[in-house]
Amino acid sequence: MFVLPSDSTLRQKPFVFGVATASFQIEGANTADGRCESIWDRFCATPGKVLNGDDGSVACDHYNRLEQDLDLIQELGVDAYRFSIAWPRIEPMPGQWNEAGFQFYERLIDGLIARGIQPYLTLYHWDLPQYLEDKGGWINRETAYAFATYANKVTERFGDKVVSYATFNEPLCSAFVGYRWGSHAPGYQDERLAYQAAHHLLLAHGLALPSMRNNASNAQHGIVLNFTPAYPLTDSEADKQAARFSELDGGDWFLHPLMTAEYPPEVVAAHTEFMPTQMPGDLAIIARPIDFIGVNYYTRCVIKAGDNGKPDVVEQSSPKTDIGWEIYPDALTRLMSDMKIHYPNLPPIFITENGAADNTEKVDGQVNDDMRTDYYQQHLLAVHNALADGADIRGYFAWSLMDNFEWAYGYSQRFGIVHVDYATQQRTVKKSGQFWQAFLAARAATER
Ligand code: GCO
User: Fold this and answer.
1) What is the pLDDT of residues 182-236, one digit of tens each?
2) Is 71 part of a structural domain of the chain?
């Protein structure tokens, strides 16, 4: 039985509830109206990179179903919608600004506003134009400047119609999954390239901020990071140090310079040979003030000290989602308190992604995704507990509005609170979506 205290902060505004998506994962129409190839189109076209050879050519066909999907978002009763802009639609050639691309997102933003839904925009959710990758991508410092120009154009166009601008979604995935582990585009496995890409992503973020603030002075400006809190297998000093190192070489590799203008010293000392080439002043640009940090949380990891103290992940037997991630809501509560302890100057937080892969199929027109519904209830309580502990959390976005392209997993993993039949593109609100509708309706009722 889901019981949220009646006086919970979650039950009243201004706390923001929303749903989230990303351009490449839902839009399809990957060659329509002037859009150029992205690194994810190229990755999908590379044999063996994406399960079943799935790609983003159709996805949820959102590009052609915008109005219906805006009605769906409104039907859920959310306050806000978090989406990303496809750079390949906006700048299909260097310096060529594509009016058709701008118009799609203008219809999206105006459609949200007309429905009383706040637009939360992410400028980059991994779909880099391939022509930039062909010139080195995030290894090339010039890409950071190209991003700042792109960010200027987008914020100049949409200004304060957008409530919140995030520069990047999960630079950790762009840099470490894309260049270190290789399972995301562009698919390198090189420690040195990974830290260099991370540096240029963070630099791009800092370079973009001044013009974003100038073009949208009433909007909130920040960045979205992902975190996997690490728990030591035992309370031995070795395991505890290994667990913390895992965090410092993970989400904190990005949060630390944003908050302190330096990279985590422990990791720099351990990985000296891989550290990025920097220019004087880079870290001051990276640490420019921001209005919020978006936190994406899914799961935790358990760590023991391996050879020479290296963090080794220890698989857990506890309940997992269908993608194999342990369900551990307390780690979200702990993450919120740890972040404030480690970074006293932490700005307000939005939980910009939280959700579960639950591949329950539709039967007789229904999707009884009990595991996902329970996951959300547990994690809402975790957010409530974090707020009660004093965390400054301003909003929560469920990942995701609808089932969509789950990167290297293709369409095999379903994260939506709305089911998508990819053969017919029919949308069906799942049991978890109905839970959200009821929760948000009850909250709205108390506001009248
Ligand atoms: C991420 C991305 C999303 C994913 C979601 C499930 O956090 O990895 O922002 O695009 O689809 O997290 O993996």
Assistant:
1) 999 999 999 999 999 999 999 999 999 999 999 999 999 999 999 999 999 999 9
2) yes
128-174: per-residue pLDDT in tens? 999 999 999 999 999 999 999 999 999 999 999 999 999 999 999 99
Domain CATH number, residue 163: 3.20.20.80
Determine, yes or no, domain membership for 176: yes
With a 6 A CB cut-off, is 127 part of the ligand 1 pocket?
A: no
- Is 353 considered catalytic here? yes
- 2 band by pLDDT with thresholds 50, 70 and 90: confident
Tell whether 266 is covered by a domain. Answer: yes
Report which residue type is found at 400: S
Burial (CB < 10 A; 0-12, 13-18, 19+), residue 64, is middle
Distance 255 CA to ligand 1 centre (A): 18
User: Is 237 part of a structural domain of the chain?
Assistant: no
Using the atom order of ligand 1, give the atom closest to the CA of residue 404: 11
Domain count, the chain: 1
Structure tokens at 105: 């997102």
Determine whether the shortest distance from the Cβ of 22 to ligand 1 is under 6 A. Answer: yes
* DSSP H or E run through 378: helix 370-388
Known catalytic residue at 170: yes
Domain limits at 270?
9-227+245-300+317-446
Q: For residue 20, how far is its CA from the centre of ligand 1 (angstroms)?
A: 10
